[in-house]
Amino acid sequence: MNDYTPKYIQIINTIKKQIISRKLKPGTRIPKEAEYAKQFHVARKTLRNAFAFLERDGFLLRKKSVGTIIAPKALHNKHLHADLAVLIKVVNNDYSTYADVFSETEGYLTDLIKQLTSRGYLLRFIPWFYNTPNYYTADTIIKKKNIDGFIINSPMYMKPLMNIIASNKIPHVALETEYCRPGVNTVMNDCNASVYQAVKKLFSLGHRKIGLAGCLLKKAEINTAAYRTMTAFVEICTDLKIPTKKEWIINYGHQCDQKMSMNLTDLYCEMFLRSDRPTAVVVTSGLNIDNLFEALKIVKLCVPKDLSVICNLMQSPIQVSNNIKITGYIPDNKTICINAINSILGWLKNPAYKPSCNKILPLRISGESVRPYCGN
């Protein structure tokens, strides 16, 4: 050993070279401490200090009931020149959701892609098939494609892959929805918080008959924003002791797993034609605002005179329908993007990074679609 280089540094450099040359391969257990101590002529305390630095730098990984193993390459590549993959769902061979990523001009995923490419990061776009066979296995993507980290859109559609990524502590960030599993790292819009704020606002204005103008739910296991909005809506109404009727909660597609068409205007009309109709509604998505106003035109109700409206997931800061500026909430895409980038790059820099679910509060947009309840 070189007398001028601290022994623990020499150990670190030697083991790194063995890992990079693949003499020590990812997933294999490192030799016993006693063997290394004898090889390097050092005390076990010095050896453990070296292991601690190697673990911090992402070359070693401690796993319960297994011991210390050689970490996947994704953990110890240089984070400043990382090779990242964007995983996008494809449901029942419908490639439209995959193609949409390249045609959208705004949104947190679009912003994220723009920011990373402007910084010089190499991005790969990988379709992941839901309910149909994939062209490649999760093991192939993680271990053989030299990908340093993953950006996962719609993680609930790729649970098997997510489980492997989380179990192996591969740097990643999941977007759009929360997969409640240890080891999953998520940054997402907190649509539950905006639902709570919307209902409380209407409640404070005297409204006690509040409906939900929803949309496509999909299966509960997919945990879409529409499904989370409905669940949060029922919870806050229960907390405030506001009566809810199933006729006041409009959704469809409880068992589907992809896009399907439905005449929402007709469904909304049914809610407003009732003698005990709501005096206010929370609209799940800005995509359905026009359907709502078409229904109100048919049943001859005016906003906000006859009905107060708050949109939970607006498409733009200024959303107008029938010359009425809508009150509501919009995802804070800029903050979501910044946090997602800091999250995955922070993990690449620091293998000791602890995955978590970071929910970003949406921005409130003032409009003209809400007023106090004045009685019938």
Percent helix range: 25-40%
By CATH, the superfamily of the largest domain comes out as: Response regulator
Number of helices: 13
Radius of gyration: 26 Å
Explain this structure to me?
The protein is α/β, with parallel strands linked by helices and 376 residues long. It has 13 helices and 16 strands. It folds into 3 domains: 7-71, Orthogonal Bundle (Arc Repressor Mutant, subunit A); 79-188 and 335-361, 3-Layer(aba) Sandwich (Rossmann fold), CATH 3.40.50; 191-330, Rossmann fold (3-Layer(aba) Sandwich). Helices cover 37% and strands 19% of the residues. The strands form 5 sheets. The protein has a 6-stranded mixed sheet with strand order 9-8-10-11-14-16, with helices on both faces. Strands 4-3-5-6 form a 4-stranded parallel sheet. Helix 9 (191-204) packs parallel to helix 10 (225-239). The longest helix has 17 residues, at 333-349. The protein is elongated. The chain starts with 6 loop residues before the first helix and ends in an 11-residue tail after the last strand.
